[in-house]
Design brief:
By secondary structure, the protein is α/β, with parallel strands linked by helices. The chain folds into 2 domains: about 120 residues, Rossmann fold, CATH 3.40.50; about 100 residues, Winged helix-like DNA-binding domain superfamily/Winged helix DNA-binding domain (Arc Repressor Mutant, subunit A), CATH 1.10.10. Helices cover about 45% and strands about 20% of the residues. It is built from 9 helices and 11 strands. Helix 4 links the parallel strand 4 and strand 5. It starts with a strand and ends with a helix.
Amino acid sequence: MRILVIEDERRIAKDIIKGLEGAGYVTKHCLDGEDGWFRGDSETFDAVVLDLGLPLIDGLTVLRRWRAAGRSMPVVVLTARDGWIDKVDGIDAGADDYLAKPFRMEELLARIRAITRRAVGQASPLLVNGALQVDTRLHTVSVGNTAIPVTPLEYRLVAYMLHHRGRIISQSELSEHIYDQDIERDSNALEVLISRLRRKLGSDIIQTRRGHGYVIVAEDAQR
């Protein structure tokens, strides 16, 4: 999953990015509100971590502009320790959650998991579709009662597809959301990755739609 981090304090941003990438997320970082607003308005992200006290354009203005433009990605706003007014204003502006500084990385990760689940109508941290299960807390994958060893990249792919099960996902969208670097975004590499996952999970779990992309068919739709 792809997370946009908009934080002007470099030390805090570095810690957030390290924690998110250690948890398997792909991150993009902006140091000011103007760049952050543009990125969020022109690119696709699964969630945003948004500081409110940003240079050039403040975080509340960034958030209001996104929501006015119909940008619906879930957002966690970062506030000062005693900034209850900021929290209220952030929620009213369209934030999905807030976190007061200083905070523990584990709490931010839990909130990211929660808002990304809610964004796709999923309440539980355990994603289940038929025999396939992904635990978003432990980063584990299993089929039936059998744990399947997967690499971090394989986990990112199957977790992203399971979050969006039932929807055909193009190669370009998959590449954008699972690879850290642009140079890794190669269609042949993605096909190899999916072939490897099919050998591990079963050949019918990730299905190809020629000319369109890939899909994990929702269990209800298979009946």
